[in-house]
Specification:
alpha+beta
């Protein structure tokens, strides 16, 4: 009786390892940028939340019917400070009591209140920014792209 050995030869194993190495080397660059893509997507989500919060506060301000009111109480009872003149009428001001209260939780983001108010990821590069203009209620997310985040 002759015994036949079964299994892979050393050359076959080396060829498979080399092929896997080549595949990994070509696929790696596609996955390296995932973290910055995720941060950019998160920032775009924040921008959408800011826009929604501004419009909800403005709508609530208009519904109350008082064009001189300096605060608006949202549906959940949060008091938001708003502007009263020109394009800023009914728009949250650029403070923690304004846009900060309108948005709610800002976990993961560091706001710098003022005119404009800016939001950067707490663990991200300073070039990845969402800005809010309290004079008009406009939210600018142009720099929240994967290249900057």
């Amino acid at each position: 009786m002759s015994k036949h050995q079964r299994g892979f030869t050393l050359i076959e194993l080396i060829v498979v390892i080399v092929i896997l190495g080549i595949l990994a080397a070509t696929a790696l660059p596609r996955f390296v940028n995932l973290q910055s893509d995720a941060k950019a997507a998160s920032m775009q989500g924040l921008a959408g939340g800011l826009r929604g919060a501004v419009e909800l506060v403005r709508a609530r301000w208009l519904v109350t019917g008082s064009t001189t009111a300096t605060t608006v109480q949202t549906a959940d009872g949060t008091v938001v400070t708003v502007g009263t003149a020109g394009a800023a009428a009914g728009v949250p001001v650029g403070t923690a009591l304004g846009i900060g209260n309108a948005v709610g939780t800002l976990s993961g983001y560091t706001p710098t209140y003022g005119s404009p108010t800016t939001f950067v990821p707490s663990a991200g590069p300073p070039g990845c920014v969402i800005s809010y203009d309290p004079a008009t209620g406009a939210v600018n997310s142009a720099s929240a792209v994967a290249a900057a985040c």
